[in-house]
Amino acid sequence: MSNYKTSINPSPQTRFSQEYFNSLTLHGAANIADYPQIAPAGSVVGWTWSKEEPTDPQAMTILPGEPIPAKDDLGTILANFHSAWKNGHRSVVIHTCVEGQAYTLLYHLSKIELIRLVNIYDSPQRKASSLLRHLEERSTVPLAPAMLDEFKQCKFLDGIKGFYSTKYHLYELFCFLNETWIEEDLLCGLLELAYFEKHASDIEDDPSLYGSAPAHIVLPTDFLSDAFAFSGGNVFLSSSTPLRIRIRLESTHVSTICAARLEHKHFTALAHQVGTEAFLHCDSMHGGYDQTLGMMISDALSTPTLPLPGLVRSGDVSRQGQGNGGDGSCGIAVLNFIQRALGHPESEKWTGQKSQYFRDRALVDLITFHLVSSKREGSFLDWVEPASMEVGEQLYKDTERERAMAAEGCFFTSAYHDFNLYKPLYSHPIFEFYHLTTRRSVSPRTSSESPMREIPHANPHCATTPRAIPLSPSRASSELDSDSPDTLPSIAFLNSTLRQPFTLNLTSKSGRRSTGVDALGKRSRSGSDSSSPNTRRPNKHPAQSTRSPSPDFEIVAVDYAPNHQGGSRHVKVEDRDSDIEVVTHRRVAKPMKVEDSDSDIEILPHAPSTPPRTRLAPILPSNLRVGLTSLTSSHRPVVPQSL
User: Fold this and answer.
1) CB 185 within 8 A of CB 222
2) 225 or 15, greater pLDDT
3) Which site in 51, 325, 338, 473 is 20 to 30 Å from 429, CA atoms measured?
């Protein structure tokens, strides 16, 4: 067998070999100037095997400008390769007629393999070329030049990275161009991105949500496909697919449930706000809907504590086609409908007239997430943990049981990977992606665009909403104006042992100010007037009245590294004016301390006596990271850079 493979496989150095295509970047593949011309199907008029083993370049390689047979014309030859080789044949004589010109050529078996590969990668090569040209010249949502250059250097045959629900090649992103129908796998990838991105947005609004499961479920197309395939009995209801989702619904807080559906090459969706009486149906063709859809989801997912309605009503979605535009964008319309149902950070309503903008935005999002994920160690299951202890236990029990029962043919198991069963760890690329995406400033939310409820802050006494970001392993920084009485730091602890309220005491050694704020945004005051610790605003020092309003100090990624000699941690803080001392104290732990040269400001976080919340082991990161941000309305996170 090894001799057979050696005989039919071209040399790795040969142009258009498998190794050649594997080594190409997207830019390289898109710019092959002399890609071989494939003759129309039916150009082969005859062929015969030969025992001759040619060595000349014309028989061994594809020459520039040489027309080659289409793969469809080589079907019989390729199907009989092995038997012909066993009978001593090493080449084949092929008679072709291309544009009225007759050719009779001797092809080594390895050249037939080259011709097969050129046929296979002809369409992907064209797609890669069109994709890059679109990103460079025509995209309505431009990709940052540095990211575009980085994307061009990705391997031509690379699969997109960072996802659990889908696998596809980068060149397949071509389908976002014009009004090409969006592939199902790509839509499911976008739904997964929406699931995690909304959770990242919620965490930024309320850092205490880190460690909790996303407050929404986004079921990919496979869920309803499985439900319909097994709707004739109780097979689907007893399978692991809805069982795990029911456990997720019972063991975590969920306020929104969405599901996408693919039927006859057309995407539709359902969305339900917990507490309302119906599912809302999305169909950009404005067709009818089957009421059994609601009953099917209700039967599959209702729990004793969360009964779901079986009623379905029409949702708000623009019409595609019939002069409205967006003729091939039913998938993008479904994505937008689900994003709006979730209360997505950018919830502008999709319309056919603006269809290409929404397609370009989805395209740029997928590319950005791929580039961020490519720089992370590990894969999806390294960046998440089960949504709850109960879900984790069920996943563990199902692994062996489903395999054994499926082998016996008596138990249905779905092949799709369900991201709804997981919550992101700090290492998940979604946090960096969230702060890299440019659409945060595209358009503000309005009540008509975002009908969803606002997420209340954990502290009802908080006058302003803290804006704390979970920092990625790469460096991130935020600016704080130390002279502004309204600029108070909010801190996000991303480790279970410190995820509880604590107090930050800001003590100015030079007498400039003395302010405290707890992790939930509640102010306190130390100093001359302690009678109103939660309402008084700190006074400015008179000497500071002439100071520039520009930010006085910068606190960057705070990295806690375990000290095996005790419970202490170390913090990294950069200060523009070199006047910050950071001293932190943990409950039942040694203090941690970082000082700068002048030590003008001291920050003392104190953990309370309340026990920390329990987190699901064993996927805790070894490092604890903390991010501080400004509470001023003008705060914008700085794009993370490498530490």
Assistant:
1) no
2) 15
3) 338
Distances (CA, A) of 317 to 49, 203, 260, 277, 579: 60, 28, 14, 19, 55
Mean pLDDT over 596-618 rounds to 37
Is residue 467 over pLDDT 80?
no
Q: How many degrees, rounded to 5, is the angle at CA 46 between CA 43 and CA 48?
A: 135
Helix (H) or strand (E) holding 30: helix 26-30
Asked if 623 contacts 557 with a C-beta cutoff of 8 angstroms, the reply is no
Is 538 in contact with 485 (CB distance < 8 Å)?
yes
- Whether the per-residue pLDDT at 105 is higher than 80: the answer is yes
CA distance 288 to 491: 49
Burial 109-129 (b: 16+ CB within 10 A, else e): bbbbbbbbbbbebbebbebbb
Q: What is the torsional sign of CA 18, 23, 25, 28?
A: negative
Domains, the chain: 2-120 (no CATH), 170-441 (3.40.395.10), 477-629 (no CATH)
- What is the residue type of 260? A
Q: In this structure, what are the phi and psi dihedrals at residue 73, rounded to the nearest 5 degrees?
A: -80, -10
* Length in residues, the chain: 643
SS3 385: strand
With beta carbons less than 8 A apart as the criterion, state whether 325 and 351 touch. yes
Helix (H/G/I), strand (E/B), else coil: 349:
coil
State mean pLDDT over 115-134.
97
Q: Is the pLDDT of residue 178 over 70?
A: yes
Rounded-to-integer distance, Cα 620 and Cα 351, Å: 43
Taking the CA of residue 476 as centre, how many other CA atoms within 13 Å lie in the half-sphere pointing to its CB? 23
